[in-house]
Amino acid sequence: MIGMADAKPQISSGLEGVYIAESSICRVDGQAGGLYYRGYSIDSLCKNSDYEEVVHLLLHGRLPKAQELAETKKVLAESRNLPEGVVSTIKHMNGKAHPMDTVRTAVSMLSAYDPEVADSSNEANMRKSLRIISRTASIVATIGRIAAGGEYVAPDNSMSHSENFLYMLNGKKPTPQQLDIMRDMFIIHAEHSSNASTFGTMVAGSTLADIYSAVTAGIAVLKGPLHGGADEAALHMMNEIGDPDNTEVYITEALAGKKKIMGFGHRVYKAYDPRAKVIKTYLLQMQDSSSEEVKRLTGIALRAEKLMIDKLGQSHGIWPNVDFFAGPVYRAAGIPAEIFTPIFAASRTAGWCAHMMEYWENNRLFRPLEYYTGAIDLQYVPIDKR
Predict the structure, then answer these.
(1) Which member of 192, 266, 273, 355 is catalytic?
(2) Is 180 marked active-site?
(3) Alpha helices, DSSP H only, in the chain?
(4) What stretches in the chain show pLDDT beneath 50?
(5) Could you confirm whether 266 is annotated as catalytic?
């Protein structure tokens, strides 16, 4: 075994409590329930901004002037159309692969169509970031469109990022409420500090791999159910409950059986998730929805929230997180559950690219240590004597 000289170091499982870098991009205040992009609260951004402005804010560190915002919107719009090879790959993978696998493959493919892929200058990386942000949304919309039996819908460059996404997904212009929902969902998922997928992006990028490789790594990390798939799982739970009147019995029995209630609790937030507060405003508007599905899901969500807060909110610091309310709101926007996590990826490309651009300013290869607990100096035994 290892020698006594190798005293066991303190190991932070899951890197909990370990700071990996300095950043001015995002502040997550887990105790007070605050979320800030470059100093602006998520609530103020959802009330006053749109996704394109948030993209500029994250990438450049400040809100844009009118001409700068117009230029960002122009580049994003002009980058939307997908290469034929990417569309063909999405069609080929439809029904054979998880949608997140298709997103990962399609985004990786985009590098083959970018003439600046090998240019590592800051200016080129900024342009590539905008292309990635724009085309990942088109990829996700196309995955949903083809899965529903439709054909690729060419983008409409006169539309905003959020409106065009829904247009490419559904083949028609969204209603005002659907557009508002999509805009806010893109904004609240755009960034969240050094979460697992952002860290995965930064680890890949720290090797000086290109930004397509870094973002592809982030997508791969996001696929895991402990990170990106909780909103779909929460919706599945609501469908298991079935009727709003079954909510209290289901939750009470689940808690008694120590079953996890999806969409509640968070690794960082010990207060009400500020993103959930934004989404809840839509639930309150949807209580009298003309859609029976949305009305049913909304009733379950609001009753489950009240019961969970009464039982575990103040006493255990377990509150609704962003994933809990997302399902009913996405369904109100006509979005199928299968692309909830891909939408998360499309939104988060802005944060991933911003962190990568920032980290490259003072890049250092991530090379953590591990504490070896195995044997050493074992004698090799030939195969015929084992």
Answers:
(1) 266
(2) no
(3) 42-48, 51-60, 66-78, 84-93, 99-110, 122-147, 161-170, 176-188, 196-206, 211-222, 230-241, 247-256, 274-285, 292-308, 314-316, 322-332, 340-360
(4) 1-4
(5) yes
